[in-house]
């Protein structure tokens, strides 16, 4: 994700300030300064870091699990047609059923502590699966033929020929899935109210009509999400560069 120019940030903060002044009620739209003051208060509370760590850990667990499962399913679906046909209804359900329905079912079947993990998993699974399956299906046959001519091992084919072609699809899918997992995971927490989570803190702020606190938590979510996505994207870019370099030095 590219860094925004300073003038863009200043423009939107100024617009936010003007709108807050026009509304005239902090309970409806708090000013940027009041939001930062609330955020500063939150930064001095241990529950702030505990809630962020808990939510981030659950979302990460669901996100990583979904990536691993979806890659395995995509490889198996490409290899066996019957398996692809078997998995397709599951992927369609994950893509089509509203998140609220999954949240309610999970709360009925399991405890709220597993809610954000499961929702993040469901959000990411169909995106990564579909993109990886598409990438595998579009592998360059000429490169595959060349690899066979040079009698490359299966590991070498995957490492130097296939992975560099799949990674752009994988990168795009995982970054989209990461953003969705944050949105859906925190939304699920607001409904399920797992202990010491961002969703619980947002719900408490809403319950007491503490709008500045809602805005402060929202700013914190945006910052954490941006930081997390940036680190993940840098890691993927470094891996892609390494794979591409190894591909041309083969």
Task: Give a verbal description of the structure.
With 250 residues, this protein is mainly alpha-helical. The chain has one domain: Orthogonal Bundle (MetI-like fold), CATH 1.10.3720. Helix content is 84%, strand content 0%. The protein has 10 helices and no strands. It has helices at 6-23, 32-43, 46-79, 81-96, 99-109, 115-137, 141-149, 154-192, 198-207, 211-248. Helix 2 crosses helix 10 (211-248) and helix 3 (46-79) runs parallel beside helix 6. The longest helix has 39 residues, at 154-192.
Please give a handful of descriptors for the protein shown.
250 residues; MetI-like fold; mainly alpha
At the first level of CATH, what is the class?
Answer: Mainly Alpha
Q: Terminal Cα separation, in Å?
A: 31 Å
Q: Profile the largest sheet.
A: none
Order of helices and strands: HHHHHHHHHH
């Amino acid at each position: 994700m590219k860094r925004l120019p300073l003038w863009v940030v200043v423009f939107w903060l100024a617009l936010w300030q003007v709108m807050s002044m026009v509304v005239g009620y902090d309970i409806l739209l708090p000013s940027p300064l009041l939001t930062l003051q609330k955020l500063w208060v939150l930064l001095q509370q241990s529950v702030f870091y505990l809630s962020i760590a808990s939510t981030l850990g659950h979302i990460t667990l669901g996100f990583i699990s979904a990536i691993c499962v979806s890659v395995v399913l995509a490889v198996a679906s490409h290899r066996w047609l019957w398996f692809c046909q078997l998995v397709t209804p599951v992927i369609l359900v994950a893509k089509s059923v509203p998140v609220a329905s999954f949240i309610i079912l999970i709360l009925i079947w399991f405890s709220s502590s597993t809610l954000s993990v499961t929702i993040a998993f469901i959000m990411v699974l169909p995106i990564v699966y579909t993109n990886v399956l598409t990438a595998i299906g579009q592998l360059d046959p000429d490169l595959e033929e060349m690899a066979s001519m040079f009698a490359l091992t299966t590991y070498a084919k995957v490492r130097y020929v296939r992975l560099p072609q799949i990674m752009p699809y994988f990168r795009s899918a995982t970054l989209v899935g990461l953003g969705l997992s944050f949105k859906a995971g925190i939304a699920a927490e607001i409904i399920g109210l797992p202990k010491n989570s961002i969703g619980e803190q947002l719900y408490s702020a809403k319950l007491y009509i503490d709008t500045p606190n809602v805005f402060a938590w929202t700013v914190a979510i945006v910052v954490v999400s941006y930081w997390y996505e940036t680190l993940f994207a840098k890691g993927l870019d470094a891996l892609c560069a390494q794979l591409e370099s190894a591909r041309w030095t083969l």
